[in-house]
Amino acid sequence: MESRSQLDSLLSVLNFFFKIYKTVEIIKKEVDSNLCPC
Question: Source organism's superkingdom (predicted)?
């Protein structure tokens, strides 16, 4: 039971970081397109 809850918390943390990573990627694309003079 204990290991199960640890696994769940680990997965939720990974999911959280994955969302942050995706958001950062989107922001980078937005910034790049804004900086591009073309």
Answer: Bacteria
